[in-house]
């Protein structure tokens, strides 16, 4: 599989259309099934359902970004959402309650892909075309370049609570770490990666990689040198991974048009109840458990916390 510059190539969309069509048909079938025929008093079937006082389940919404070729997505501690807009080489911020986004001051961006936000609300962006990682400190209008060297095709990005920065290089199949306060990178000891598309790091310092070419998600616990495969099954190009504050792990299963969640301490992943997804490839979770997904319809979807997951069937 050949990757494009800062996101999957457009021809991959064509490869995914068949699967997406099946998903749409399945969704329509489910929607029809929800109207259950009940016997009427005359013995004939009626499609009228009894009113219910139960609250409506949480639903997904499309956030008011105007995007073309979006890349990484992140959310800060205040609930503000950030997304890299590849078509216009910029990073957008949508503040809580706002109905339109604003452009952050990242001058000279070229092919922004991976994006991360740290606990101080600093924003980090990978520039694939410029082969670098830049940081915009909260409240600043002047980004700085981080001292990574030798990047060939950087893409995925993660930042720990302590300020350590990790970047995945698709071309060299490496994950590099820049410790907080250091100007010297080190290689993280992942083994056998094939197109690590994105990264995450949890509160314990464990690092996760969406090992897209191997259709797996791997975890390297802090202080260890042997990564382990997580029990996600049936993946077809997992393109992102993230971890929430409770330790639940999420991955975008791009070619299966779904987002999976592995609850903390569980070995049984489940499907998040998004509808109409088309090649979801980036995911973020806020402190309240709301889930944000970027898909190939050039949009950011938000699934409100309180949703019910569905069983994984394959």
UniProtKB/TrEMBL annotation:
Top-level taxonomic group: Bacteria
Pfam families in UniProt: NHL
CDD domains named among the record's database cross-references: NHL_PKND_like (cd14952)
Transmembrane intervals: 14-36
SUPFAM superfamilies to which the protein is assigned, alphabetical: NHL repeat (SSF101898)
InterPro entries, per the entry: NHL_PKND, NHL_repeat, TRIM-NHL_E3_ligases
The UniProt record lists the keyword Zinc: no
Keywords associated with the record: Membrane, Repeat, Transmembrane, Transmembrane helix
MF GO annotations: zinc ion binding
Stretches forming NHL repeats: 109-139, 144-181, 193-223, 231-265
Alphabetical list of PANTHER family matching this protein: E3 UBIQUITIN-PROTEIN LIGASE NHLRC1-RELATED, PROTEIN LIN-41
Protein name: Membrane protein
């Amino acid at each position: 599989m050949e990757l494009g510059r800062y996101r999957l190539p457009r021809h991959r969309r064509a490869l995914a259309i068949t699967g997406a069509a099946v998903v749409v048909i399945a969704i329509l079938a489910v929607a029809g099934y929800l109207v259950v025929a009940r016997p009427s008093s005359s013995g004939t079937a009626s499609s009228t359902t009894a009113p219910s006082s139960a609250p409506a389940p949480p639903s997904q919404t499309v956030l008011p970004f105007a995007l073309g070729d979006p890349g990484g997505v992140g959310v800060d501690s205040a609930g503000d959402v950030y997304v890299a807009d590849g078509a216009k080489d910029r990073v957008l911020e949508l503040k809580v309650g706002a109905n339109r986004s604003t452009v952050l001051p990242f001058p000279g961006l070229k092919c922004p892909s991976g994006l991360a936000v740290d606990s101080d609300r600093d924003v980090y962006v990978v520039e694939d075309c410029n082969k670098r990682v830049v940081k915009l400190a909260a409240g600043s209008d002047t980004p700085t370049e981080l001292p990574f060297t030798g990047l060939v095709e950087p893409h995925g990005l993660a930042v720990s609570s302590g300020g350590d920065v990790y970047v995945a290089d698709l071309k060299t199949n490496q994950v590099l770490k820049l410790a907080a306060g250091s100007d010297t990178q080190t290689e993280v000891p992942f083994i056998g990666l094939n197109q690590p598309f994105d990264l995450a790091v949890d509160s314990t310092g464990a690092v996760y990689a969406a090992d897209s070419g191997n259709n797996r998600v791997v975890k390297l616990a802090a202080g260890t040198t042997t990564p382990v495969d997580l029990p996600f099954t049936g993946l077809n190009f997992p393109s992102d991974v993230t971890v929430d504050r409770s330790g639940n792990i999420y991955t975008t299963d791009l070619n299966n048009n779904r987002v999976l969640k592995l609850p903390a301490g569980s070995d049984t992943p489940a499907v998040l109840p998004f509808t109409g997804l088309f090649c979801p490839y980036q995911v973020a979770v806020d402190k309240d458990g709301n889930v944000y997904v970027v898909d190939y319809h050039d949009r950011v979807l938000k699934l409100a916390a309180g949703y019910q997951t569905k069983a994984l069937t394959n």
